[in-house]
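Illustration: Detected protein of confused Function.
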Amino acid sequence: MPPMTRQRYWNNIPQPHAAVYYSKRAAKGGLIITEATVISEAGRGHKDTPGIWSKEQVEAWKPIVDAVHAKGGIIFCQIWHMSISRMANPLSPPPGTSNELKSQLQANAEEPAKFSPPRRLRTDGIPQVVDQYRVAARNAMEAGKSGQSGTQAISICRLLGFGGSNPTALGIYMAESLNKYGILYCHMVEPRMKLAEESFETTESLLPMKKAFKGTFIVAGEYDKDDGNKVFA
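Result:
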């Protein structure tokens, strides 16, 4: 089952209803990827998404993982960091950040006043985010040790929209870098879907990145039946 953000986790704590939701979709040998799970308080970008940076969150994930394992399923935790950061305290910005950026989108029509503006990440702030990913990955594995001996929740990470002056060169660099770690698959969204809930014609292509990546390359992006058939024609 692919991930789908649901925003039903008050105060970023996984809720008991999630065990029902995931277990209903679990099957022996089936792979479930969790909805995006935030690695730190400063990395939040949507309201009421689950987190995995605290002990309380890890404990709340355990019965969810157990429910999937009880059905013989496999569950991966999708760990992510949205930005630096719309949800952080604007009076106490995260270290390693600089000037505020104007937000172009408000998630789910939330009032702009409820979010602090995102902040640009400085080079000296990168090690902190890397460490947050490390802690979150260990927490995901800890959540997976509950209940069944020898089973663990395995972590994958999500990278949000990269661009810059040369997105093709950056994409190739990222693909080649991922190859060094034996990554099983890379799941990308078509460039035509850079704008939320709106597709448009573009000359940009993921083909150079696909050719550079040695694992399985998965692409999504507002495909309907006819679009999908054209890809495989």
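Reading the tokens back as a structure: Residues 31 and 42 are 29 Å apart (CA to CA).
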